[in-house]
Amino acid sequence: MPAVSLGTPHVRTAVSPDGRPDTDLLVDRFGRVARDLRISVTEKCSLRCTYCMPAEGLPAIAADQLLTPDEIGRLVGIATARFGVHDIRLTGGEPLVRREIVEVVSRVRAAAPDASVSMTTNAIGLDKRVHALVEAGLDRVNISLDSVDRQHFAELTRRDRLPAVLAGIRGAIDAGLSPVKLNAVLMPETLRGARDLLAFAVEHDCRLRFIEQMPLDADHQWAREHMVTAETLLAELGRQFTLEPLGRDDPSAPAEEWRVDGGSATVGIIASVTRSFCGDCDRTRLTAEGTVRSCLFGDAETDLRGLLRGGGSDDDVAAAWQGAMWAKPWSHGFDTGAPDPETFAPTTRSMGAIGG
Ligand code: SAM
Questions:
Q1: What is the structure's pLDDT at 4?
Q2: In a 10 Å sphere around its CB, with 0-12 CB exposed, 13-18 middle and 19+ buried, how is residue 50 labelled?
Q3: What pTM did the predictor assign?
């Protein structure tokens, strides 16, 4: 494992007792710097996607255990002003299910006027709230959509809500939140509708990306041998579209892109399993209850809510956050790299409970 190599001007040489350099940044032991903050705002969701949520939903979090909009704003202020975080994404659960979501966006924007503020959402109800959200400071949305076939969608999500999702997508486009990105989880069940999904994305000028399914389903059904490879997806899409490889926006970008039919549309594949990009990971996550989670597959979490409510200063909160990120595992929850890069540490939280 590489020793910490922190050649940036922000990093001073003195170290804390755990060996951490005296720096304002969110650094880890492997030299990565977190600048992308994902905040889960609720565990509740309007869908029950089989690869994410249990059929009965996640155990409810008591209202007083959730970070308040004020607390979220304070943490965002610390992240941006002290750590140089510049991308903030609200997620869940389903962020639109949180009653105070507009207030959350507005607190985030007030705390981080120059940051990019985005949301990952299933778009149910987005058409009704998109203008308020944009006015509050939302810049972009990533919308999850695995099928444009109503019955297939209902099977995958255990809810017959495709019309509401399509209305939400239309609302986002009409509100000028472009480019609207569509995320589909790549698995055997989504493969059969993949061409229709791409045709929909091209028609509506949305950027579709397929994400390899990770072992973060609440039902623990994920198995490596059931994974659909990029080659299989490309062969399926190639039956209808001409795809020209474009590579990546930059070498560390997670999505590899293809141009569709020689036009302006692209389709991307995020190979989270077969091409781990942990070495370039720049994420720090806050769960809805206010714990820092440094890695999707690392169950160690550090409580910030208790510090906020116990009268902790910004210095106290920042120090706890930096300590949590210093302990960030190297990859997939493992500290020194798994012998097989496609191995994942088992995690007690599913994707919906972490905030994807
Ligand atoms: N409810 C919102 C939504 O549907 O986008 C936000 C939360 S959801 C957990 C965030 C993202 O995680 C979605 O794009 C979803 O497809 C993705 N996701 C959930 N489970 C996953 C898994 N097992 N592997 C890969 N991506 C997953």
A1: 35
A2: buried
A3: 0.92
